[in-house]
Amino acid sequence: MGEYADIYVDDKFYSKNEFINMKADFSALPKYEDIKNLLPEPVWDGHSDEIKAYYKAWEIAFSNLGKPTKENGFVSPYIDAAFNNCIFMWDSCFMLMFGRYADNVHSFQKTLDNFYCKQEKDGYISREISEENGRGKFFRHDPVSTGPEIMTWCEWQYYKNYGDKDRLKKVYYPLLSYHRWLKAYHRWQDGSYWSSGWGCGMDNLPRADMEAVPGAEDWHLETFHHSFMSWIDATMQAAMACEHLILMSDELGITDGVEELEDEREKLISYINDKMWDEKDGFYYDRRSNGELLKVKSAAAFWSLISRTAPEDRVERICSHLENKDEFNRKNRVPALSADHPDFSPDGHYWNGGVWPPVVYMVLTGLTANSKHELAHDIAVCNYENMIDVFRSTGTLWENYAPDKTAPGNPAKGDFVGWTGILPITMLIEYIFGIQISADKNEVEWRVNELDRHGFNNLPVGRDSYVSLVCEKRNSQNEKPVVNIKSNKKLSVKIIWNDESFIVNT
Predict the structure, then answer these.
(1) How far apart are CA 84 and CA 131, in angstroms?
(2) Confidence of residue 251 (pLDDT cuts 50, 70, 90)
(3) What is the pTM of this model?
(4) Contact assessment for residue 105 and residue 99, using Cβ atoms and an 8 Å cutoff
(5) In the chain, what are the domain boundaries?
(6) Scanning 30, 208, 449, 474, which has the fewest C-beta atoms within 10 Å of its C-beta?
């Protein structure tokens, strides 16, 4: 007596989750001082502070490693954002966006193994799991219990870097089961999805429908309640998860669940563009239960780019908001909340204007997916240079940054890695230097933007493989790059500059 009966329906794909019975890895964790020289090495003449920030991020990241215990039942070593002795779904996914570049030294990606091994039989996975006892911190049907649905994206990004089909096959079924749980329990009858402030990762954004919940003014509705809305990010993330699961199935030759995923993605794209788009504003908004749009311009709408749910003409209009100085084109780009909202804070006030590395990276990845390379580079440079200026004055990295001044956000945690490793590591590689890796195709695309001598040594391109790419100093953007490329595997490297290109085969 006193315990809840197990009345949940088992998902038919749960039995294929190999992580449930995986043997735990209790091996010793690497120490930063021992592996520093094995990390990808940045080359950038005249930019010592930028290189210091790069290694500072790795130093903090390796200090935040943990490993399984008999008490927590985890199966793999993990990185922790160092908040509260819990691993977080949202945080972990974005930490792995930079952690994957050290995979030949330490497999940060296995952090997600500890979410998969804790999956319930109905497909549910808690977004926050205790490192002490391995228990999820929430009941299933708490509005903040899980999300956002981005583990599928994280695993696909890893696959692009390493071409690891063995891992892809292992993660496919727990990810499919998790999506099916969200579809069953976080979806309205019209097919759209809902979330909450904590569930979407953007805690205090003022996007809740206060009129929908009596007495809402007395508590933090924007943080803890779905307010009966269709949430744009949750709905777009579901569409994105469908696409990535379909891509995984194609790579693996698996048909389980694919027809259902294809059908849902098509319906979600129609819903998003028919029901969540405001033609006058040229923007996507959350949708109230009465069918009206909640006119709060937030970074949540930019999931339309990375999920590829926006048609071409709407991509252009969405991007115009990223260029608008009264909205998202601030001194530091891109604030979580548009600057024309009355709750916008010049120093950030957490998600009421704060510039967050995971959001910026999501935007950049979405722009790249839509071939908006110049805009992506401009935003990256702005964000990266701001981070470096703050690093020079404070000596460290921060949880978030102010939108209208060169300063940490207020509030913001210092010595934070955390997702902030995206800025000095991933953003440097992918957007400042312009190196995009497709290990699954043995291809590297290098958009050469910098004039000073720059590049990377020992950049991983697949398992136990690397490439070194260094571009010599140029005098102008029009000057053809002179590049030195070495690799221990056959690669096709496409060099792009000023709308010109050539290919180097190693």
Answers:
(1) 9
(2) very high
(3) 0.96
(4) no
(5) 14-432, 433-506
(6) 30
